[in-house]
C-alpha cells in the first residue's frame, strides 16, 4: 500500500480506488491471520497521514459494508458513504440496452419484459445474462455451419442487403 500512496503523492492530484475493500480491510476482531491485521493497520496509518500528502482522494468500494473494519468508517478516513442500490426496472432496461448493443436480437425479444423479470439483478448480473444468451445462440448455430464452406446467407448474423441500398442491415434469422 505504501508504494501506491507514495505514487499518488508524487502524481497529485490523485485518486486511489480500492475495490472489494471488505477483503482488504476486514474487521480485525474476526480475522485469524496476522497479515490481515497488519494490512488493515497499514491502511489506517496511510489514511491518517493523508492530510499532509496533498490532493489525494481515496475511494473504497464494497458490497459488504458491515464486514469492513469499523475504524475505516470513522471521520477523517473515509468521510462519506454513498450507497448505490440495486437498479429498478428502468435502470435494468437501460443496462440491458447497453449489454445487447450490437447484438442481433430476434423480433420476439422484449428487453422491457426481461428488465421486469430480473428484479434484484445488478449490472454485472445483467452483463452475465446477456453474455450467456449470446453463447447459447452461438452453440445453437455453430453445429449448423460447415466451417469448410462459406456461411449460408440464412445463418449470417448481419450482412448487406444489396436490394435496399448500401449498408442496410438484415436481421438475424435462425434456420430450423
Kindly provide the radius of gyration, computed on alpha-carbon positions and rounded to a whole number of angstroms: 25 Å
CATH topology of the largest domain: Rossmann fold
Number of strands: 2
Q: Give the distance, in angstroms, between the N- and C-terminal Cα atoms.
A: 57 Å
Report the total helices: 6
CATH architectural label of the largest domain: 3-Layer(aba) Sandwich
**What is the mean pLDDT?**
79
The proportion of residues in beta strands is 5-15%
Query: What is the count of distinct domains?
Result: 2
What portion of residues is helical? 25-40%
How does this model look, in words?
With 176 residues, this protein is mostly helical. It folds into two domains: 2-73, P-loop containing nucleotide triphosphate hydrolases (Rossmann fold, 3-Layer(aba) Sandwich); 89-144, Helicase, Ruva Protein, domain 3 (Orthogonal Bundle), CATH 1.10.8.60. It is 38% helix and 6% strand. The chain is built from six helices and two strands; from the N terminus they run αβααβααα. It has helices at residues 2-10, 21-24, 34-48, 89-100, 111-117, 123-141, and strands at residues 14-18, 56-60. A two-stranded parallel ribbon has the order 1-2. The longest helix has 19 residues, at 123-141. It is elongated, with a radius of gyration of 25 Å. The termini are far apart. Residues 158-176 have low confidence and may be disordered.
Amino acid at each position: 500500500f505504501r508504494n501506491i500512496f507514495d505514487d499518488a503523492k508524487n502524481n497529485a492530484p490523485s485518486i486511489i480506488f480500492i475495490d472489494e475493500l471488505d477483503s482488504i480491510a476486514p474487521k480485525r476482531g474476526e480475522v485469524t491471520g496476522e497479515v490481515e491485521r497488519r494490512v488493515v493497520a497499514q491502511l489506517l496509518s496511510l489514511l491518517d497521514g493523508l492530510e499532509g500528502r496533498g490532493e489525494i482522494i481515496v475511494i473504497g468500494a464494497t458490497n459488504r459494508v458491515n464486514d469492513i473494519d469499523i475504524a475505516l468508517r470513522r471521520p477523517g478516513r473515509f468521510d462519506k458513504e454513498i450507497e448505490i442500490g440495486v437498479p429498478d426496472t428502468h435502470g435494468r432496461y437501460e443496462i440491458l440496452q447497453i449489454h445487447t448493443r450490437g447484438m442481433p436480437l430476434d423480433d420476439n425479444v422484449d428487453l422491457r419484459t426481461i428488465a421486469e423479470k430480473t428484479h434484484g439483478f445488478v449490472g454485472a448480473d445483467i452483463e452475465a445474462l446477456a453474455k450467456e444468451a449470446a453463447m447459447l445462440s452461438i452453440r445453437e448455430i455453430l453445429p449448423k455451419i460447415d466451417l469448410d464452406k462459406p456461411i449460408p446467407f440464412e445463418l449470417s448474423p448481419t450482412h448487406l442487403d444489396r436490394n435496399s441500398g448500401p449498408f442496410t442491415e438484415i436481421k438475424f434469422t435462425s434456420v430450423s
